Structure formats: C-alpha cells, structure tokens
Amino acid sequence: MTGWLTRFPVRVAIGLVAPALLIVLWQWQTSEHIVTFAPPAAVGTALLDLIRSGDLARDTLATLKRAFTGLAIGVPLGVAVGIAMGIWKPIDRLVGPLLHALRQVPMIGWLPLMGLWFGMGATTELAVVGMSSFFPSMLNSHAGVAQVEKRYIEVGGIFRFSVAQRIRYILLPGAMPLVLTGITQALAFAWIATIGTELLTGANAGLGVAMQLAQVQQRLDIMLVIIGVTAALGFTINQLFRQLRQSLLRWQPSV
Amino acid sequence: MSAHPHAREDKPPQSVQHGALSVRDLDKSFQIGGRPHKVLDGINLDVRPGEFVSIVGASGCGKSTLLRLIVGLDTDYSGELRLDGERIATTSLDRGIIFQDHRLFPWMTLEQNVELALLNTDTPKDRRAKIVADHIALVNLTGFEKAYPHQLSGGMAQRAAIARALVTEPRLLLLDEPLGALDALTRVHVQNELQRIWMAQRSTMVMVTHDVEEALYLGDRVIVMSPNPGRIRRIVDVDLPHPRDRRSPLLHRLKDEILAELTSGADADAADNLVHLPSREPR
Description:
Chain A has helices at 8-32, 40-53, 55-87, 89-102, 111-118, 122-146, 150-158, 163-201, 207-216, 220-248.
C-alpha cells in the first residue's frame, strides 16, 4: 500500500524536498561564485526588511488587485462569449475567426498599441490582463459546450426541454469541466500578464515594479524575494482554485 | 393475432385503452455517400395497448432506427406512425425511451435525474418528490438517491434509467437494447425486473434486442426483422402467461425456430454483410 504517500502532510513534506535541495545548492554555489547570487541568509534578511517596511504588502496587494480586476473582467466575458459561440453557431461564425486570429498575438504584443491609446497606466494594464484571461476562458468554454454529447441533448428532446432548459440542465453543466479548465488557465495567464505589464509599464506599485526597481538598484536579494513571492502566490492561487474545481466537479469519477 | 387473456385479465379496462401504436407502410432512407440507402421498407405493425413486443434482427435491419422514428427523434420518414390515433410528429412525454447506454446526466444525482424527467409535466411540485421516490423504489434503488451515475454499477444505472423513463408514465415505452451492455448475470436479473415492472405498470412496451431468448422471455410477440433494407420477416406469438418460466419448452422451441430463421437469411448474403454491416445502422 502506498496510501500514506497521498496523505496531506506527507504530500506537503515531499513537495518541500525539491525547494529545500534548491536552497542547499544555492548556498553551495554562493560560496563557489559561479554566477552573481545573493546568499540565502541575505535574501532572508531582505524579506524581513520588506515585510517590516510594508513595501512587500503594498506591492503584493497592488499586483493582486491588478490581476483580479483583470480576471473579473476577462473571465466572465470569456465564459459568456465562449458559451454563446458553443450554443449558437451563427455567433461562432461571426466572431470566431476574428477572435482566433487576435489570440495569436502575444499579450505583451498589445502593450505598445494600448500604451499609445491609453498611456502606460492602469487602463492599459487592465486591458492586457483582461485579454489574457479572456482568451483561455473563451476557448475552453466554447470547446466545453461543443463537446457535450448529442446523446444527452437527445434526452432533453425526449423530455421536451425548452432551449433555456437545455442550456441550464445540459449544456452548462456538461461544459463545466472545460469552463473550469479555462478559468484555471486564465488565472495563470492573468498572473503572468500582470507581472509582465508591471515590469514593462513601470506602474507605481506592484511586484513587477519592485523587481524592476531592484534591478536598477542592483539589489539581487530583493529580486530573489520578489521572484519567490510571485511563485508562491501564483502557486497558492492555483491550488485554491483546484480545490474549488474539485468540489464543483464532485460528480465526475475521480481521476 | 391471438388474444392474451393470461395475467392481463386483472387490468382495469381504462388502462387498456391507451398506448396503441400503429405503423403503416413505413419507409426510411439515409443518404450514404450522396445516395439514398433504404433502411426500413414497408413496415406495418400494430401494437395493442399494454402489449410487450420484442423486435429481433441482425445489425443493420433498422430496428434502432424504427425506435428513433417512433419516439420522434427522427421525423424524416414516409408512411404513417400513430399512437392512439395521433400522428407522431415530434417527441412527446407520452412516449418514453431507454437506450443501451443509460444516458443519465453524470452531473446529477440519481434522484435529480429522475425528477428532471418531470420538469415539463403538469405534476404538482409538491408531489414530485414522492413520485420520484416511488419510482426509485420500483427499480429497487432506494438508498441510492444521492448517488451520482458514476457511483452506480452498470445494472443499477440501467435500472435508474428505467425509473427515469417510467416516471412520466408514458403510454408507450421503447427500449433500444436496454440490457445490451450488461453482463449475463445482471442481464437476467434486470430482465426479471423489467417483467415485474411491465406487469405492474401496464404500459405498452416495444423492445429491440439482439438476444432472442430475452425477446421471447419478455415479449407477447416477437417481430423478426431482416436487413438490407429492414423488413418484417415474421411475427411470432408467444402464447405464455407472465411471469414466465425460462425453462418453458415452448420458449426453447421458438428460440431455435427464430435463430434458424435469422441465420438462414444471413448465409445468402453473408459476404455482403461482412463488408457493409458496420456502416449500415447510423446511431
């Protein structure tokens, strides 16, 4: 039996092995000076300083606010458009080709244009983050509705479902697994886009801004703190959403 | 057709009035590779109210297509289909169907699945829970109301599908190889349940099956169909009271006869069948 391996505390402990090894490796290479790197202890001190000064909290909150505002716009819009495209073919034919062409442009590629229109400020950041969460939500929701099996739709026909009933009881729940996959991707994309735009637009606060500033000031320790915080936050958001997803999809056979 | 007084005498007369199916000169073609391909040719059939009719035949004889036409999922045919004199033009809550795959919605519990069938009926909301519970009890699934379909075994899921199909009290219930995906033991078990339910519900049932023994065990009549195009080859009366004894010599004799009938036709165009069969009966 390997059941104990899947227990939560054990799983956490196993997950921490690789990061711990990385820190050991890091400490060792610091003394060997292969590349310029701050030693772990210095990074620890920098972390404490950033927490004490409130800079870290300010930057983290600014980034989270930016990411979730963008998500709050992009995800509902993406899910709605994707589902509408899945349900009504004419909508798909009308806007599908345009959207599929636009999504080929990397999100960062929109920055210059947006900057020209809105300036390198909040509006541009929001537009880019919103778009990066819109496309995965839209694509997966569309696919989700499209892959609902015809045999279930026939059951709706047998019981005389109206269009609204078919959407509510068959298409939406049937599409739910892929809609949630889309939102998972949107979370990751929005997070990357947020840090990316912060780096490039130099907003007044945010983890990306702090990274940029640390580079200018040649503060390797701060840079590593911000990278660590970015990774940890992104990971946490993803894990929390995974829990939500699992509870929403408890009707699925566990995989 | 001979009368079947056995076991049906206790029926109140009004229930016998409903569920008369009449099929007249039914033709059905599919376009295959741009050319029309006839799957049903001149089907004539009358099913009496409360009767259990089984349809057997090789793959490609159009028997599943026939059920899809009767239930109203496919309305592109020529000829006439009537239930109690009313022409069949679309689906209706008067006509239920059970498929080989149970088709329960995986995102709903057993109870929710059964209750959803009542969505567009005029059953009062406050009575629905009781009706649902009764039908779950009818198929012996009490205790599994909150289970999701993936948590049920194949036999249980198929019984749940039976409950869902019966909850609207259709005048006619169609069964499209309902037990085809079950293992032999479960199959016998669900056959017994089907017989019990049919005797209790007294709705008209038309079942398509591959299994001649099953067709004979349950059917008042067995329709033998031949393929390419699908035609009725023979109608066999099974003059035995329900519930039936599987060991009955009559059932065994009829089984041998029907099997001989089915295989003799297959020999003639066996080569033809081997090449074309899989594509002949669109699902």
